[in-house]
Amino acid sequence: MSKEHISSDKLRIQQAVDQRDAQLREIALAIHANPELSFHEKKAAEWLTAPLQEAGFAVERGIAGLETAFRATWEGRAGGPTIALLAEYDALPEIGHACGHNLIGTAAVGAALSLKDAVPELPGRIVVLGTPAEEDGGGKIIMCEQGVFDSVDVAMLCHPHNRTMVLRGALACVDATFSFYGKQAHASSAPEKGISALDALINAFVAINSLRQFCKEDVRIHGIITKGGDAPNIVPDYCEAKFIIRATTVRELRELTEKVYKAVMLSAQAVGARAEIKEGLVYAERNSNKALASLFARNLESMGIEVSEPPSKGGIGSSDIGNVSQVTATIHPYIKITEAGTHTPEFTAAAASENGLIGLNRAAKALAMTAYDLCTDPDAFHQVRKEFEDWKKKRDEEAVS
Question: Which of 122, 142, 148, 295 is deepest in the core (most CB within 10 A)?
Answer without folding.
Answer: 295
